[in-house]
């Protein structure tokens, strides 16, 4: 009887904690949605849009690299696939970018599954190196793919502002709300997964793959699922970025720096946590954009020195992530 009472109490506490997390997240999303009413400067609005976008991208990377422990440094490949799929379908075939976002996400997920078959047989740094090499191969292929514009890229046509074409030249608020929606969706998907069977399997694989396998966890399938979901949302983010900037070329969407900008926020904010990627993006993306704008114009590289120095300080003083300042690092969704 006592054991049943304890079990019921623990379950009630768990459900209550999950409910509080969800309500807190919804409150945060509502507060963020009010920001466009307060920010009128176009440049600052662009910075905020990029911050939300990379918070979503980092959360997507976190599913594979943070929870499943598979540190990918080649997510720029999926980002570029989403950008090119959306651009080609819209510019060459007149298909709405919404169709391109979905198509790019599906293509990226399928490619992630195809690449996962050989790559997930590698362990540790060998897997990370393989993802870098594959992403660089993709960059070279798009550089030489004439149908996709090769090195010249693809220019989106100028059209009246419309949600149908995801083009807003005069008002950036719609882009802000799309980026917020993407971040909210990736957060909610992560929230739903981390306490599911897949979430427990991913964390088991991350902690000790051999022990997890001995307990019946299908390691390979767990990694493949994480890769596909992560690639899907990364590609959707790439498609949105293409609509946002209205012009893409291989270096502007598939360069190695994009892979780093997806991984760094999660690493510095706190990998394997719900809010770590968002906190990391909130610090890193505005820092990168503002230092580049105000200190990088002379070509001295001072902006990169300051940016790199702050990244090193955080890495050395808070290796568990910035989130550990607010709350001690915990496993799973509790962080």
From TrEMBL:
<keyword id="KW-1133">Transmembrane helix</keyword>
<dbReference type="GO" id="GO:0005886">
    <property type="term" value="C:plasma membrane"/>
</dbReference>
<dbReference type="InterPro" id="IPR043428">
    <property type="entry name" value="LivM-like"/>
</dbReference>
<feature type="transmembrane region" description="Helical">
    <location>
        <begin position="76"/>
        <end position="95"/>
    </location>
</feature>
<keyword id="KW-0472">Membrane</keyword>
<keyword id="KW-1003">Cell membrane</keyword>
<keyword id="KW-0812">Transmembrane</keyword>
<feature type="transmembrane region" description="Helical">
    <location>
        <begin position="260"/>
        <end position="285"/>
    </location>
</feature>
<feature type="transmembrane region" description="Helical">
    <location>
        <begin position="305"/>
        <end position="326"/>
    </location>
</feature>
<feature type="transmembrane region" description="Helical">
    <location>
        <begin position="101"/>
        <end position="120"/>
    </location>
</feature>
<feature type="transmembrane region" description="Helical">
    <location>
        <begin position="224"/>
        <end position="248"/>
    </location>
</feature>
<protein>
    <recommendedName>
        <fullName>Branched-chain amino acid ABC transporter permease</fullName>
    </recommendedName>
</protein>
<feature type="transmembrane region" description="Helical">
    <location>
        <begin position="175"/>
        <end position="194"/>
    </location>
</feature>
<feature type="transmembrane region" description="Helical">
    <location>
        <begin position="45"/>
        <end position="64"/>
    </location>
</feature>
<feature type="transmembrane region" description="Helical">
    <location>
        <begin position="21"/>
        <end position="39"/>
    </location>
</feature>
<dbReference type="InterPro" id="IPR001851">
    <property type="entry name" value="ABC_transp_permease"/>
</dbReference>
<dbReference type="Pfam" id="PF02653">
    <property type="entry name" value="BPD_transp_2"/>
</dbReference>
<dbReference type="GO" id="GO:0015658">
    <property type="term" value="F:branched-chain amino acid transmembrane transporter activity"/>
</dbReference>
